[in-house]
Amino acid sequence: MRVNRGDEVLIVRVLTREGIAGYGFTFSEDVAAARAMACWDAAARAAGRPLRQLLAGTDPSARAALDAPAKAESHPWSVAWQAILAGEPGAAIDWTLEPGFTKLHWIEPELKGEAHHG
After folding, report:
1. Domain residue spans in the chain?
2. pLDDT at residue 118 above 60?
3. With 80 as the cut, is the pLDDT of residue 23 above it?
C-alpha cells in the first residue's frame, strides 16, 4: 500500500482461531517482521492484555524482531508502535490515518468446523 507521504508499506493481517485480527506493517521488504508484529498484536487482543505484558519474560530476540519494522521510521504508525512496545498508557495505532488502509479488502478465510467472527 502507498501511504500519503509516498512510501510503500507492507501490511499483514493474521486471524486467531476465534477470528480476532492482528495487524503488522513494515516499510521494508521484511514480511517476517510484519507477520511477527501481527501475530503478537492478535495474541494481545485475544488475551485482552497490553502487548508489553505479553512480552515480559520473552526471549530478547522476540522483542528485537518487533522493533525492526518501525525502528527508524517517523511515520505515525511507527511512532505509535514504539509507544505500544514501551508500554505507554493508551498507546495505539490509528490505522485510519492512512485512507488506503480503510480501503483494503481482506479475504475472509473459511475455518473448517469453527465459527468465524470476522
Report:
1. 10-102
2. no
3. yes
